[in-house]
User: Fold this.
Amino acid sequence: MFAYIVRRALQSVLVMASVAFVAFTLFQYMGDPINQMVAQDATLAERENLRRVLGLDRPFYVQFLVFLKNLVTGNFGFSFRVGTPVAQIIAERLPATLELVLVAAMFALFVGVPAGVYTGLHRHGALSRFMLTISLIGVSLPTFLIGILLILIFAVVLGWLPSFGRGQVVQLGFWSTGFLTTSGLKALILPSITLGLFQTTLIMRLVRSEMLEVLRADYIKFARARGLTNRAVNFGHALKNTLVPVITIAGLQIGGLIAFAIITETVFQWPGMGFLFITAIQFVDIPVMSSYLVLVALFFVIINLIVDLLYFAVDPRLRIDRSVSTH
Amino acid sequence: MSVWRSLQDLVRRFLGSDVFYSFRRSPTVVIAFALTLLFMVAAALAPWIVPHNTYEVASLSLNDAFLPPAWVSGGKLTYLLGTDDQGRDVFSTIVLGARVSLIVGFASVFLALTLGVALGLVAGYVGGITDSIIMRVADVKLSFPAILIVLLIDGVARGLLPRDLHDKAAVYVIVLAIGLSTWIQYARTVRGLTLVEKNKEYVQAARVIGLHPILIMFRHVLPNVMGPVLVIGTLGLGVAVLTESTLSFLGVGVPPTEPSLGTLIRIGNNFLFSGEWWMAIFPGIFLVILILSVNLLGDWLRDALNPKLR
Assistant:
């Protein structure tokens, strides 16, 4: 098991290193930073001087190491477009995205799992069929269209919910939260449903198929023969065993949520990192682009690592198999 | 005469095959096929069949801007689905937009397929370090969602191009971005199949008579691994059209002068609040129908070509 963890951690480091390298090459070869910084009429000598001061004349690998050191210490450079430090811009935008992703993930779990259990238990019920049809439609609709439809129905026609922005936010130290005001909570509803709908249907279908499989197992029959209540059998015995794959998929999907937040944030003009990234692409703002890339990669690697370790902790069979095969 | 005879024979064999039988038996698939075909024919003939050529700026009139669909009061019959902010006929822009979306879709699938199949064949057949390098690159790429990689390639390409070329080169940039981010699936599938095929007798025989490895790969192994590639390609077309529309919707895709379906939805989204819903909703409906039909077709093809499910 220890060897497994080490191997997994090494793999993560490798992924991070290659992402950092891509980000570095972006920095290095996309436009000359000197041109962005000096005055129009700067002489060649002045340019060379600045190049030396910034360390741009040093060998490739030295520059890469300096870049890595800057990344680790949180120094992401300056935005080409607005001129402020990238670390500061991202720190302002980070809470918005993380809160949106969190609510969307909660929505997916607390709607997806019960819906999956229900459709698994009542296979031929009218409500189950209805839910499955809805989920099929949800999967086929592109994310941005779902957002537009929700805005059209709930903001334009009914006028119940806001269609853009975060509402009123409360500043808690460096973290700005929308959880503490009514307008902030209302503003979260439509974006998080848009973002989480795909994951909801995915989890629902997963739980459903796992439930169907588990319910056929011998130990369920035995539990029924022992005279346990339906409730104890369905939730205590069956659901518990469907949750192993659900944890894996749900964990991996959080990464997907962060990526797809780009689209949702654009539809709802949500002031998060994804919106920032799209603006950066439109204006070719390299430092913002590459910092976003590194940060998201870091999230991904950490999530994947946790999920892998969690999988290991949850499923005892894995532990036994591994230890037997390695000895 | 004999060519005609063999053609007849081929058609008869196809009509009698179990693939065609499973096609005929499912009305959903027949409808999906008909719709896909309709879209493709309409897209191919678009410049000649649309009621108004919206690419010709001179023919547009701002007096006709913001007209609702024909059946709503105030609508004109010549503009069946209404007009947009520049007085362009929405139905015509949709047909022309579907053309752009499908061109991008086919081109990027072609790019991804060529790249993926070639790399997969080489990785599987040659093995060793070549195999490890190709597959490690694929692994790193697979640990990120495709949309992120597409956006990154799109952004890099924009950075490398001079600013005034952005709109002109936009279509090529998108094709490149989608193609470069989706070749992995083809490569992995083809590699797996090649590993199996490599040890079969016909490959050994080809090797014994001294054929060049490249000839063996592309003439002998390739035809035997193309079935699953066809399935991934069909499903990939749906994904490519979806990705293209997402990019265009986000404003980093096809420019508004020759809009795709995604660009149209982006434009329409700006007018959602002022009540001009038709500008976003109709392109949206057509986009969903297109993607859904292609996906249904792909799903069916996957099941029909899978001998285990017969």
About this structure: The mean pLDDT of chain B is 81. Chain B touches chain A through 35 residues (CB under 8 Å). The CA atoms of residues 249 and 266 of chain B lie 5 Å apart. The longest helix of chain B spans residues 213-250.
